[in-house]
Design goal:
This protein has a domain of 84 residues. Helices cover 49% and strands 0% of the residues. The protein is built from six helices and no strands. The longest helix has 19 residues.
Length: 123
């Protein structure tokens, strides 16, 4: 009778442990390593401008830009590429990471960085 109780306890414990395990999908686990992020030909008008508008425009627009950083035109973005690169590439734990709500998707960071590395052209 004691061995039946031990086996029952082991079965219940094994089932509890098995249910405690979970599996995340690759997108959640590796979100900082996007597979389909083409940075070979990033353009300002088609990719960088929309990324900046979506992630930076509400705080760094032409009317009362925060920290004096207006990113509303190409010339103003071009003049601040070093500052932009620094802020979007900071770790999430850094209080100076931008945007303030947390970093933008890694693919967007990669695109902006690639555009800057290619000379920050007005293309």
């Amino acid at each position: 009778m004691k061995s039946t109780v031990k086996i029952s306890v082991l079965i219940v414990a094994g089932a509890a442990i098995a249910q405690a395990c979970y599996y995340d999908n690759a997108e959640d686990l590796y979100q900082n390593f996007p597979k389909n992020c083409d940075v070979s030909a990033v353009t300002y008008s088609l990719e960088v401008r929309p990324i900046l508008d979506q992630n930076c425009g509400s705080c760094h627009g032409p009317i009362a830009p925060q920290a004096g950083l207006d990113l509303s035109t190409y010339d103003k973005v071009k003049a601040n590429v070093t500052r932009i690169r620094d802020r979007i590439n900071r770790p999430i734990s850094d209080p100076l990471v931008m945007p303030q709500g947390g970093p933008m998707p890694q693919c967007n960071i990669n695109k902006v960085t690639a555009w800057i590395d290619a000379g920050a052209l007005n293309n």
